[in-house]
Design brief:
The protein is built from 13 helices and 17 strands. It is of the alpha+beta class and 366 residues long. Helix 9 packs across helix 10.
């Protein structure tokens, strides 16, 4: 490479073995050991703080963030790259904003930058001409039609945006959940939503200790069953233990009740269910997604949250006040954000807006 040769003349060292075998971003994030490596990833923005990456109005050419997908929005899945002065004119985002979404390879030292997994003292940059073929679009642009809107206008705009989706069959849901709900500590397992248990992906089924497909918006609330559409929308379908799924049944969500067997932290009574605290916000955001996505205009019932329990077969689930409190107390975490990204990039190609913008909950349901 011409750039590498010039750098060698200037006294910068390049390790041929690592440069010849690039690693991906997730590997680089896990290998912060001050070793030299070449990392290939997609440019997803400029880091300006430990948990902040901007995708426009770049302040300078000093840094960029790489990810394994051009649509990645979670900073925990990004590698922060320090750009030495020699490369800023060619790879700094202020000077080259068109690099956003392009694939590049950088050789440098795997070390923290902005107190975040990073790559420093770079000796070579290459690429910049290819885009992620699996990237359906920039999530920032994804919500462009909702910009500046509030209340009912925001809800209507989001409905239009997220209704543009690929629909799965109920059988396809099995394999999708094995990906979207994969245990980050064990790729052979999924995490069960309510109980939090890590369980083998291969134990899906109907047996007493198997896991099955839980409809967080109970399918009897609106009587949509497992029909392609709300019945197969994986934004609200999650793996769960068969007996815990049965214990939840079609109950509304509320605080209180007695402990649920095999579900530490869960409670239930005659008319409501509460999951463990760590996923109460997840549940709320799934319910509110369903209310925006399914408004009665595509042959299915108009789903709406309300402040009641005992909703039965009505196309409603409560309690809205409790769900809003859960969402505020349990903001989106890395697992939930990754799940949203996987659904967007690989399966349905739509997003849950309340994971990306939790503040929109209060705007739509003040």
């Amino acid at each position: 490479m011409i750039v590498t040769a010039v750098l060698a003349l200037l006294g910068f060292g390049v390790t041929p073995s690592t440069a010849a075998t690039p690693i991906n971003v997730s590997t680089a994030i896990g290998r912060q050991d001050n070793s030299t490596a070449s990392v290939t990833g997609y440019v997803v923005g400029q880091p300006t703080a430990t948990n902040t990456v901007v995708r426009s109005n770049f302040p300078d050419d000093y840094a960029l963030a790489l990810a394994d997908s051009a649509s990645q929005t979670s900073t925990s899945a990004m590698l922060y790259v320090q750009i030495p002065a020699a490369f800023r004119a060619s790879y700094g985002l202020k000077s080259n904003p068109s690099l956003l979404g392009k694939q590049i390879t950088v050789t440098g030292t795997l070390a923290a930058y902005f107190s975040h997994p990073g790559l420093k003292n770079a000796t070579a940059f290459t690429g910049g001409g290819g885009s992620d073929p699996g990237d359906p679009g920039d999530p920032g642009d994804y919500y462009a039609a909702a910009a500046g809107k509030t209340g009912p206008a925001l809800k209507a705009a989001l409905h239009t945006i997220i209704s543009n989706q690929t629909k799965l069959s109920y059988d396809q849901v099995w394999n999708a959940l094995k990906d979207t709900d994969q245990d980050p500590a064990n790729a052979n397992n999924v995490i069960l939503l309510y109980s939090g248990r890590s369980q083998s992906k291969t134990t899906n089924g109907g047996g007493v200790n198997d896991w099955n497909r839980e409809h967080v918006w109970a399918k009897s609330h609106g009587d949509f069953g497992t029909a392609t559409g709300p019945g197969t929308d994986i934004h609200h379908l999650r793996p769960e233990d068969v007996s815990v799924n049965s214990a939840r049944g079609n109950l509304d969500f509320d605080n209180g009740g007695a402990a649920v067997a095999e579900c530490s932290g869960c409670t239930a009574d005659a008319d409501s269910f509460a999951p463990r605290a760590a996923v109460r916000g997840d549940v709320a955001r799934m319910i509110l997604y369903m209310a925006v996505r399914y408004d009665g205009g595509d042959g299915f019932a108009d789903l709406e949250p309300n402040n009641s329990v005992n909703n039965g077969s009505a196309p409603a689930i409560g309690k809205l006040s409790v769900l809003k409190a859960w969402a505020a107390a349990d903001p989106p975490d890395t697992f939930e954000k990754r799940r949203n990204d996987r659904i967007y990039t690989t399966y349905q190609h739509n997003r849950n807006p309340f994971i990306d913008h939790p503040e929109w909950i209060q705007s739509i349901w003040p």
